[in-house]
Description:
binds 5'-O-[(R)-(carboxyoxy)(hydroxy)phosphoryl]adenosine; Nucleotidyltransferase, domain 5; globular; binds zinc ion; single chain; 10 helices; 10 strands; alpha/beta
Amino acid sequence: MRVLGIESSCDETGVAVYDGAQGLLAHRLHSQVETHALYGGVVPELASRDHVRRITPLIRETLAAAGLSVGDLDGVAYTRGPGLAGALLVGASVARSLAWSRDIPAVGLHHMEAHLLAPMLEADPPAFPFVALLVSGGHTMLVQVEGVGRYRVLGQSLDDAAGEAFDKTAKLLSLPYPGGPSIERLAAAGDPDRLRFPRPMTDRPGLDFSFSGLKTYALTVIRDAAAQGLEAADIARAFQDAVVDTMAIKCRRALEETGVSRLVVAGGVGANSALRARLTEIAGKHGATVHYPRLEFCTDNGAMVAYAGHLRLAAGATESAAFDITPRWDLESLAPPA
Ligand code: KG4
Ligand code: ZN
């Protein structure tokens, strides 16, 4: 079965084709980073308009790269939520119309399910069960994954998502959007012993996160930076170390509490190399393996949607042609494929 996947939940238009027998055939991405960088963050209406402009040419390009035409597709998958309503609507309406016109099935997917299954596209896919650390611009969660559609949320952020904390702190440091890669680059030149940020919610049991305090802490530190002789790089380093450390502590706890020996890390912040190095280290000490998607599949992309869509469509998932989107969507409400 050959499935076209469409991702349009935020500021990336992603399209891919996944074939059950041959694997990923082609994938293309258009990032809107330049559009939103001017404003220091994603402007929802500009995002929707750009998806409208890009989505059809991107589908054509992806099919051409796979050497296919629309008639070769057996199904279409799209991101139904969570995400920006207007942006989601673009992907949903294009996917549903395409499926309807070819009389093939379409399925609307949970964005975080697509993220957590992304490492399955790699050479060493994790077996079930695994614990997934999902860290993106909109979400931070630890999920126990027993199988496709069998998810238990172990903990999540009570306020800002990890990526959001990176983006907001970067803005305070006058670094370009998106903040994650900017902070990572600057932190590499920072002195790790110059400053220490708190590790929020690590001094009590539980697997929830809270990152909004780090941003406030950063604000205070930046205000006094000149007087203290602090460089921006030292602040970036201390902030990143605190986020990485906090996530490492919670991941170790999740592995201990569940007795699971595989950790999956996905979502945009999963591209952070300091985080990757630290999680590989703690998992190793715990006798666990860590699985990451390749860097380009950590951030939003069409490949993860095509793959997750294939899993559900090949299992016989059917949905009515009336399309809908779910901008806010509880991951635990999902069921296994038919
Ligand atoms: O998964 P994603 O592409 O989109 C959402 O679904 O949100 O994640 C985007 C987030 C942004 O907040 C961005 O700053 C962060 O991922 N990010 C990073 C890195 N690359 C992207 N954060 C830390 N280090 C990075 N290298
Ligand atoms: Zn995402």
